[in-house]
Amino acid sequence: MGPTRDELSDWLRLALTPGVGPGTARRLLAAFGLPGAIFSQSRAALLQVASAEQASALAQPPEPLAALLECTWSWLQDDPGVRRVVTLDDAHYPPSLLQIADPPMLLHVMGPPQLSLLQLERSIAVVGSRNPTAQGADHAKAFARALGDAGWAVVSGLALGVDGAAHEGALASASTSVDQIATVAVVGTGLDRVYPARHRDLAHRIAQRGLLVSEFVLGTPPLTPNFPKRNRLIAGLTRGTLVVEAALQSGSLITARMAVEQGKEVFAIPGSIHSPQSRGCHALIRQGAKLVESVQDILEELGTQVEVSNSSAHETTPKASEDDPLLVALGHEPTGLDALVARTGWPAPQLQARLLELELDGVVARLPGGLFQRTGHA
């Protein structure tokens, strides 16, 4: 059972009150109980916990409250059970979020009624670049699928690149049942919109086999500050964070830092020393993150001895084909045509024709700047 309409109104009012953030809200709740009790307090009582400005703000319902309440209540009634609001006092509020410095007052959740945020005791965050290399995207998908095969839910942020690949990999896992969460997308907008728009189909599929979660009220657009803010929830909901690829200035490193601050494990996949997308992972490894080459490295660190399936486990460590000299010459780093001509001695037209064949077979990807790279299928 979620909140009643009046209870929802009180929680939304507390969340919308200007100048009252999660920290002050928790102090008020600890002092007076549920939000309805807060609003019935005298100014003198409120001043024992809040500032004068906050006490004044608490005395008047925020102007957007009525419209937001109507919108949120209608949203809930349109698909009851699938659409939920989980408040800080709800028995279904994830205990792991209560341990972070500023847990959100309420969470909007969408997904099958039998799935709950309480089922995330075995969950891993998989995050990384919005512009990964072809191999990075393959790693994200393969690691997520192998984690799913081992019985772990994958949590990410629905962003382009590594996030999307991780969600896809988790959804491809054959081991998750209708009573088990495949993946959770923690988003930076209201749940009445999908960002980026090209992930609309992915979001719908996640809502069928996992959960979509947001701390932001309905109607919240994709505002830049909200995405780093939601990263604390990605770290907070999980046992550890795997960074697949990340530049040095990356939101994924924010998630990793928050995981460390919360006492969680951080894992990183190493990459080419020449790739900007690998520098963030290398920096994390220098700072103490665990270098991982396979899903088993993660499971062993978390004390889970599980034999992952051969198909997904091997996909995380693609091996060069001994039968194709072009793939051997290509190696595992982005490589230009001139370098391949020098390595193979083949004329450029022959190389281009063979590269096109490999690209159509899905074992080579064409990158910006005229570069080529092997994928995880090679």
Automatic annotation (TrEMBL):
InterPro entries: DprA, DprA_WH, DrpA_SLOG, RuvA_2-like, WH-like_DNA-bd_sf. Coiled coil: none annotated. Gene3D superfamilies: 3.40.50.450, Winged helix-like DNA-binding domain superfamily/Winged helix DNA-binding domain (1.10.10.10). Residues 85-302 form the Smf/DprA SLOG domain. SUPFAM superfamilies: MCP/YpsA-like, RuvA domain 2-like. Residues 314-370 form the DprA winged helix domain. It comes from the Bacteria. Belongs to the DprA/Smf family. This is DNA-processing protein DprA. It comes from Variovorax dokdonensis.
